[in-house]
Amino acid sequence: MEQTDVSTSILAAVGSGGIVGFMLGLLGGGGSILATPLILYVVGVTQPHIAIGTGALAVSLNAFTNFASHAIRGHVWWRCAAVFSALGVLGALGGSSLGKAMEGDRLIFLFGVLMIVVGVLMLKPKKAMAVECRPVDLRMCLATAAVALVAGAASGFFGIGGGFLIVPGLMLATGMPMINAIGTSLLSVGAFGLATALNYASSGLVDWWLAAEFIGGGIVGGVLGMLLATRLSAYKNILNRMFAALVLVVACYILSTNRAYWAGAQMIGMVDSAGKGVVVDCSTTTLKPCK
After folding, report:
1. Nearest Cα to 63, choosing from 55, 51, 74?
2. How far is Cα 150 from Cα 168, in angstroms, rounded to an integer?
3. HSE-up of residue 290 (Cα within 13 Å, Cβ side)
4. CA distance 237 to 283
5. CB 174 within 8 A of CB 80
6. Angle between helices 104-123 and 236-257 (to 10 degrees)
7. Which of 79, 100, 177, 273 counts the most CB atoms within 10 A of its CB?
8. Please, what is the average pLDDT of the chain?
9. Strand ranges inside the chain, DSSP E
10. How many C-beta atoms lie closer than 10 Å to residue 182's C-beta?
């Protein structure tokens, strides 16, 4: 029986990693936002912080793998990538420290809200951003630094890649073309994820075996996704919308799962009609008189 449970757990971890890798290979990004929900609700990890720390490590290695591909093709602006990553890592360390300090259920609830925002943004028609190369001056450096710190903090707080923030941020701050922004952003995504994972690992909040299984599945899924991407390239807009719908469904599940806790948390400190304080039993979301 125990052997069967172990085999099922490994299969769930490898399969979940395969799903994330497949989405990344098929769509070129976005799949990493499913890592934490899959680790929580499919693999069965019960502690949100371990799910986030382990997912951040998987996101990091996936990003570095894709970064190598873009670097070989000459899509990376190296100086911008290095500076952006270095500054963003500071934000990621701060954001991940704040995330670790927050109660797990509340953090996952906020993660669900973030997924709603990302899903809606993915459903919106993409308009070409008009960008022009800007001179390297104080204004550009300050703008780049601000974007790096904000993106790094968000990435560290939620344990996500943050590419949806980094790519447009780089384009607006530096004027680089989209393809260069994507390639350049991947070094930052990898660095932010690694900083977050190491910060969580310092508190014992990374499951290394699970991460290895998840990453192994992601490699296989990524290869299959890339092979299929060439055949389905004409349908990429449809695939993106289908993925956005999936993100919204998962977000709704996360919010509904954590709704009882959140509603209970809002009642803390309420006073009943007799003037007595009440406490919340978050496991049942019921109110009990304070003794």
Report:
1. 55
2. 13
3. 11
4. 42
5. yes
6. 150
7. 100
8. 81
9. 278-281, 286-289
10. 22
Give the tokens for residue 29.
């990004």
Q: Which long-range contacts (CB under 8 A, 24 or more apart) does 207-213 make?
A: 207/45, 207/50, 207/53, 207/54, 210/13, 210/39, 210/43, 210/45, 210/54, 211/54, 211/57, 211/58, 213/10, 213/13, 213/14, 213/17
Q: Do 175 and 134 contact (CB within 8 A), yes or no?
A: yes
SS3 7: helix
| CA-angle at 148, arms to 147 and 149, nearest 5° | 95
- What secondary structure does DSSP assign to 221-254, as a single string? HHHHHHHHHHHTGGGHHHHHHHHHHHHHHHHHHH
Model pLDDT for residues 213-235, shown as the tens digit of each residue: 999 998 888 888 878 877 876 77
* Dist CA 144 CA 23 (whole Å): 29
Which residue, among 60, 15, 33, 61, has the nearest Cα to 214 in the 3D structure? 15
DSSP conformational letter for 128: P
Q: Give me the DSSP letters along 154-195.
A: HHHHHTS--HHHHHHHHHHHH---HHHHHHHHHHHHHHHHHH
Q: What is the DSSP letter of 101?
A: H
Short-list 191, 198, 189, 153, CA closest to 170: 189
The answer to whether 17 touches 221, Cβ cutoff 8 Å, is yes
The type of residue at 86 is: A
Per-residue pLDDT for 199 more than 80? Answer: yes
3-state secondary structure (DSSP) of residue 57:
helix
AA letter at 65: T
Task: Report d(CA 24, CA 22) in Å as an integer.
Answer: 5
> Which has more confidence, 214 or 27?
214
pTM, two decimals, is: 0.80
Q: Give residue-wise pLDDT tens across range 94-128.
A: 999 999 999 998 899 999 999 998 888 888 776 65
